[in-house]
């Protein structure tokens, strides 16, 4: 994801909201390091154009599917609240299950005419022959406006996907 | 044929790779390399047994839970042995270092091996299982590996900008 963010023109995509799973300890610090690096000059390093937030996961690895029903519901409600609060115009997501409730909420608002988010999905580079579950859902349900894969084999298998090379 | 002069071998993370190098294999490999074990995770459980083995070997164990950049360590290495995480793989390839990826299907989702296998097919790295690691190291011909040309986000971002109506 940071490959994409570093390449974007920041003044076109501001303010930026980074959302990671509650149990993910590595992604937000990476994003914070990057956002700090964007600040020039002697001003204190207070990040003004970005916010960092964590979201409940639908299901943790190894969690029973029965308790996952309740946690998925919680994740959906949390995602809906975040989408309503942020009202993003653009959503970039790259695969973890955390993005599904967010994309679904944004898509729902679109359908109800209550908001408009362009949703861009970039499948993980680790996916060479098969899509992730998140990717498969977004692809089949046509929830993403643009769906990128990073290997030509996947683009052949999923023709509505776009292949524009690898990010890494 | 393995060059007998002392080389630095960095074994990146986790438990999968480390556990696969049991004492016997470590002894067999130690004739060729100076080992640096880099344990990324809660290395404490593993540090003791590895240090116990390393008493007789040229073994240096470093462990950390989060390092902003592992690049400096990789630069010093003559060979990197890593698990199949895409971050570890691409960081090593980007720095132009020979890489052996250990794929352990017992401990991780199958999809993680797709990336390593594809890159091995393209001759950018060597792939091994825990059981075959030793033979791989003994038989490896690192000069046959093809340099990896890193990808970039620009083509994807150009398509995103075009979709959003920004001048490209």
From TrEMBL, chain A:
Topology within the bilayer: Single-pass membrane protein
Keywords: Endoplasmic reticulum, Membrane, Transmembrane, Transmembrane helix
Chloroplast in keyword set: no
Pfam families, alphabetized: Alg14
Location(s), subcellular: Endoplasmic reticulum membrane
One GO biological process term: dolichol-linked oligosaccharide biosynthetic process
Record-level Gene Ontology MF annotations: N-acetylglucosaminyldiphosphodolichol N-acetylglucosaminyltransferase activity
Membrane-traversing stretches: 65-84, 104-122
GO cellular component: UDP-N-acetylglucosamine transferase complex
Protein family according to the UniProt entry: Belongs to the ALG14 family.
Protein name, entry field: UDP-N-acetylglucosamine transferase subunit ALG14
Organism: Aegilops tauschii subsp. strangulata
Lineage: Eukaryota, Viridiplantae, Streptophyta, Embryophyta, Tracheophyta
Automatic annotation (TrEMBL), chain B:
GO biological process: dolichol-linked oligosaccharide biosynthetic process
Cross-referenced SUPFAM superfamilies: UDP-Glycosyltransferase/glycogen phosphorylase (SSF53756)
Domain of life: Eukaryota
A cellular component term, taken from the record's GO annotations: UDP-N-acetylglucosamine transferase complex
Residue span, Glycosyl transferase family 28 C-terminal domain: 53-148
Gene3D superfamilies the record matches: Glycogen Phosphorylase B
A GO term, aspect molecular function: hexosyltransferase activity
Name under which the protein is recorded: Glycosyl transferase family 28 C-terminal domain-containing protein
